[in-house]
Write a structure and sequence with these properties.
The complex is a heterotrimer of chains A (about 325), B (about 240) and C (about 290). Chain A has about 325 residues and is mainly α. Chain A is built from 13 helices and 2 strands, in the order αααααβαααβααααα. Chain A is about 80% helix and about 0% strand. The longest helix of chain A has 27 residues, at about 30-55. Classes of the chains: A mainly alpha (about 325), B alpha/beta (about 240), C mainly alpha (about 290). At the A-C interface, helix 5, helix 10 and helix 12 of A face helix 4, helix 9 and helix 11 of C. The structure holds adenosine-5'-diphosphate (ADP) and magnesium ion (MG).
Chain lengths: ~325, ~240, ~290
Amino acid sequence: MEKKIFSKRNITLFFLILAIILILPLFVHGYLLRMLALIFMWIGLTACWNIIAGYTGYIDFGSVGYFGIGSYVTAILMTKAKMAFLPSLVFSGIISASFAIPIGIPTLRLRGAYFGIATLAFAEAMKQVVLELDRVAHINFFGGSHGITLPIGPGNEFFYYVMFTLMFMVMAVTLWIERSRFGYSLKAIHEAENTAELVGVNTLFAKTTAYTISAFFLGMFGATEAYWVTYITPNDVFNIHVTIQMVIMTLLGGMGTVMGPIVGGSFLTIISEILWARFIYTYMILLGIIILIVIIFMPKGIVGTIRGLVIKKKVT
Amino acid sequence: MAFLEAKKVSKFFGALAAVSEIDFTLEKGEILGMIGPNGSGKTTLFNVIVGVYPPDRGKILFSGKDISGKKPHKICHLGITKTSQIVQPFTSMTVLENVMIGGMFGKGLTLSKAKEKAKEFIDFVGLSKYLDEPSGKITVASRRRLELARALATEPEIILLDENMAGLTPWEIDEVLELLRKVNKDMGITLFVVEHVMRAVMGISERIIVLNYGEKIAEGSPEEVAKDPAVIEAYLGEKYA
Amino acid sequence: MLLLLQTVVNGVLLGGIYAAYSAGFSLIFGVMGIINIAHGELVMLGAFSTYWMFTLFKIDPFISLPISLVLLFGIGYLLQKFIFNRVVEAPSIMSYIATFGVHLIIANLALLLWTADFRSITTSYSGIHLNLGGVIIPYARLVTFFLAFVVIIGLYIFLYKTDTGRAIQATAQDKEVARLMGVNVYRIYAITFAIGAAITGIAGSLISTYFIIYPQMGLPYTIIAFCVVVLGGMGYIPGALWGGLILGVVESLTATYLSAGLSVAITFILLFFMLIFRPAGIVGKGIIE
Ligand SMILES: Nc1ncnc2c1ncn2[C@@H]1O[C@H](COP(=O)(O)OP(=O)(O)O)[C@@H](O)[C@H]1O
Ligand SMILES: [Mg+2]
């Protein structure tokens, strides 16, 4: 099946949407713009998770670890080294990625649930270390449970553009993976890892690469969010619910697809924005119910289910 | 110097010696057969050769170089690949994509070059009409051919075939045997064949080794092996006792 | 020296509690391959059922144990029958996420119903303890400790000596073969989950007599259960005891000699390295794939 992603119509549509997104801040301000930036962030985060979990099938329960590392790197560079945001952002990505290599190589040898638990342990250990290290080592670096206050950042427009750029980059990488040799190796790992290895796929290298790419972007999102909210604590930026949100959004949208994170990410961010502040518990219950419905009745996610319906229609 | 050689190779699972002190040589261009009752260690020996498990003792030499302990993808790049007893295709990929994986990663071809080559191998094994079928949807017999095509796509020097004919009808077996002869004669690929179907392995191999309880109990031409009392007791005894 | 002794005793007692509420987690994983993220909620429900029976009807926690047991058995059975049985054959990610959905629903329903308040039970025997030459052993914890043994031994006997137990084992080993032997695999799953939930529920009941309870307590308990079970070997039930004891003692030592906050970090670091170097657990009998 040859899919024509780069058809003339799609390209026109793409530039039209791009133009709208770029000029939107001229017309839209305040809450709505903030909301859009938030959607971009969640789509981007979800896409990061999708790169490792959706394509290779390695369910990462510790993604927030890299988000948190990115947040702290930028917070520390901006406050302690007085570095500007953009270079800090790049450092956040690089440092997150350089954590991902030594963490990924041993954990990606584990299969199934074991990988999930090991990554969860990594993220929780990071949180605890950041929380406790100052007290134990008698230093003043991470700020313990009080966290770090960053310099006040520019307005929502700035974060709108940064989040969009990051999201755009992750989506571009995903699209590239989808169509590249590298993407094939990831899918092969997902389907039958032993066979992949037998026919020459360096599975550990491919998995670690995917994991590192994912961590690189997660770190940059964490950095941007830190600067945006201007105040971070270990409990916020290493919160397991961030990972869980990525998992649910990916699942809701459809695993291992380019569109999945876009659909799942925007859908859930909007619902949560409407319900969260006012009816938090009800929202969480609803979320639980949505999860069960998706899992039981539409395991391919929204994108997969719609695609299935469309194909059926074409056949009949 | 033998093309592929095992020197006193052992592999343990806990206390069980699944493969015990096995020696064998495989000459370039030949077809070597391996038989043995279920659980005698054939699959394990194959897995040790291709690097799924490192040997606990002993060495594997390929063209005189020690390859023991290398990862399967490395060994594939060196020129040895395997088809599995339990077929594991990349289920949601098409037949074409399955074979392309072999070309891309086993041989290092680009995506488009791998596609071109994959079509040739698919044609060779006779699966052209299923080119764009998801590999999960084709019959078991076709999947076994797919395994062969994917192995060929890595352009190996040696293919280990682990019960590649299990579950096929006699007629299908004849076809596969014909294919394997072509692989051996025309492509010059050395074959090491494990087969439960006696007729198949006897018919195609020039030489056969026999395993029982992880040990090599006999080696020789099909006729010699078939007459060997130890083999009759171990292998045929299981069936006819 | 006394401090060290007391620290180790505390650790062992804590380990008993860990083992008591982790055995069910191990059972559920061993039989169905489900990582139950809602496990902590089962502890929470057990704790709250005891709490309410105590505050509303003045039923002593030890008397309400069988009631919690039956209640959680029922809840577990229904959860498996109506929810998890529908995903148990899907890729494992689906079952993790389904359990996460259940975690969200139960925890937040509890928040709606009972508010986020911290609660505790004070019984006539709260605070009484054994004094062994200066080493203090609270009775309630001692009882939990013995209960952990009873539960694990009981589970062991059940799995090896009863027909249902053997059917559960057959299913865990190879569900297709079990099916061919006429085992109703889905019913066995429901019973397994129910048993897992029931023993976890009584552990929760006991915990309510000396720990603070609140609707959101679940997730930390789930995470500890993960650690315990990985340390002992996933799916290997007696391993929960080993895992619990090791974790309890390590945490207790860290808290006394390093810093209380670090003990959680140590837990996770321990877990991380365990997974990498000994994924089958300390005694090497866990399920690896
Ligand atoms: N991964 C494994 N773990 C433990 N035991 C194994 C494993 N693989 C094979 N075995 C055991 O090793 C022995 C040889 O098995 P195998 O090589 O599959 O035999 P064959 O292919 O000749 O039927 C058998 O007793 C089998 O149970
Ligand atoms: Mg075999």
